[in-house]
Design goal:
Elements (H helix, E strand, L loop, with lengths): L5 E3 L10 H14 L3 E3 L4 H4 L1 H9 L10 E6 L1 E2 L12 E2 L3 H15 L4 E6 L8 H13 L3 E7 L3 H8 L7 E4 L6 H4 L2 H8 L4 E3 L6 H4 L3 H17 L3 H10 L6 E4 L4 H9 L7 H12 L5
Parallel strand pairs: 1-2, 1-10, 2-3, 3-6, 6-7, 7-8, 8-9, 9-10
Antiparallel strand pairs: 4-5
Amino acid sequence: MLSPIVAGVWRMANWNWTPQERLRWIEQCLDLGVTSFDHADIYGAYTVEALFGEALALSPGLRARMQLVTKCGIQLRVPVRPDTRVKHYDTSARHIVRSVEHSLQALGTDVIDRLLIHRPDALLDADEVAGAFEQLHDAGKVRQFGVSNFSPSQFELLHARYPLVTNQIEWHPLRRAPLFDGTLDQAQRLRAHPMIWSPLAGGALFTSDADEAMRVRGVLASIGAQHGVSAATVAFAWILRHPSRPHPIAGSRRIEAMAEAVAATTLRLDVQEWTEILVAATGQDVP
């Protein structure tokens, strides 16, 4: 359902673009084959969905060419939410339904393609959340449901009540836990293709002075030179090589960076290249 590379828009409020500039970026992403856009209600202190919707309203026919993903469940303490005394999680049915109604209005659409619970909530009532999902699906307001940042056991709990299609997680060579804590094993077992946020470690792959980052950077550049692609393309290809069939999220305003991510979809690393990157990250050979 999603494009191999997903466009992340969480920084859009910081781009200070006009609606026409935002629309142009959306069009360029679509032209690259990036048809899925990842949102959350809280992005830009609750402003990004409306910024995207404002741009989309300039060319509403584009909606049929894209998939919209959004998340809910975090309550921020910001001026536009004066009743929120402390940042907290809210996965009550009431909040989920109200968040979806707000997202639909802000995005200017009748349906959300995929809704995710943004963070694990210690007070999450799986039956209540499943009931909200059923209500929203039956009303034709949300097509699919998933979660974000859930552990395997947290995913399993909610999945037992309502079928989930994804777990959006942080994963890259500098954060390898999903490879070994059961997260990616579960994704492959259930064929619930994970979405991957921060696939470039928030830029740390190319800016950090940490030993592991510098080792990985060198291997990425070396492999990239052999294939005639950028190191960033190799980093995306490393994620795409995993058999859980992940969808990395690229969140750059630079269309050139989006194109580097898309280039990874035609670069299949062999097992030795993939392992070279892992070994550079850990600093030791595989056992």
